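Quick one, probably user error.
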């Protein structure tokens, strides 16, 4: 081992990081499970059990409009738009499009609805507004959680983003919503704004568009962006897989290339388990 000091340092560092990431994965998994249980209880309290998908979405919007008084945070910088316990309980967050949409999406998913976020972009691809798309009767219809409203035409038909690209239908929809800011439009939309990432953002979007056309539609990015506990759990799982594969690779190098002894975790655990459960000899 003296001839392979660098490998030994790398080996023990990988094992230490693997153990750390394993603990982090367990912690974030428990955190995400507790958030899901909280949301399930919350949605069960405001949505009748036998509701149809449309009635579920309407019940969530009704709670957002007419629910009990919400807390007032003296310092909103201490709140998180990606933590359901904040977005569902503080008035300030329920009045902002991003966090209001997050609250709607979290409750929608907990009640069994298929829903996702949608960004309305300006010509320079900055986000002007955030709404939700809900899958109802085979169509992704638009819900504006900020205004607690479905987008509907004059006949009451629920509209999709493709419908709202028609100026006539857009005008019919917004005239039914008091105080709606008509500068919002549906010509440019995205589910995730990669361009907002510093330095690499615009380049990364061009690469993804070239390599994986339709990647923005193919994957549902909403949960990663709207729930902090899930994002940390997702990253922890991928880190765990990375360090596990790295450890397997290093173990193979030690056994078949470098020919040096190493800690064999499975053998050590087997011996420790056998020792723990064996009956000690009395001399």
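Nope, works fine. Designed sequence:
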């Amino acid at each position: 081992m003296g001839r392979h000091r660098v490998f030994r340092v790398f080996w023990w560092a990988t094992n230490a990081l693997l153990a750390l990431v394993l603990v982090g994965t367990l912690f974030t998994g428990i955190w995400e499970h507790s958030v899901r249980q909280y949301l399930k209880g919350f949605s069960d309290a405001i949505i009748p059990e036998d509701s149809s998908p449309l009635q579920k979405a309407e019940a969530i919007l009704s709670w957002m409009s007419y629910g009990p008084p919400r807390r007032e945070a003296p310092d909103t910088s201490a709140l998180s738009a990606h933590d359901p316990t904040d977005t569902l309980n503080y008035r300030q967050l329920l009045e902002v499009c991003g966090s209001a949409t997050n609250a709607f999406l979290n409750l929608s998913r907990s009640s069994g609805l298929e829903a996702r976020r949608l960004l309305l972009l300006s010509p320079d691809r900055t986000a002007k507004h955030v709404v939700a798309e809900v899958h109802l009767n085979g169509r992704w219809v638009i819900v504006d959680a900020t205004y607690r409203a479905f987008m509907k035409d004059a006949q009451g038909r629920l509209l999709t983003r493709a419908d709202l690209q028609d100026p006539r239908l857009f005008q019919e929809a917004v005239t039914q919503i008091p105080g709606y800011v008509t500068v919002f439009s549906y010509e440019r939309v995205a589910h995730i704004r990669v361009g907002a990432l510093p330095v690499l953002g615009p380049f990364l979007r061009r690469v993804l568009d070239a390599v994986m056309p339709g990647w923005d539609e193919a994957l549902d990015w909403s949960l990663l962006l709207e729930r902090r506990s899930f994002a940390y759990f997702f990253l922890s799982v991928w880190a765990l897989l990375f360090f596990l594969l790295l450890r397997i690779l290093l173990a193979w190098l030690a056994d078949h290339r470098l020919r040096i002894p190493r800690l064999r975790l499975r053998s050590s655990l087997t011996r420790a388990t056998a020792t723990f459960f064996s009956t000690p000899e009395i001399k």
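The chain has twelve helices and five strands.
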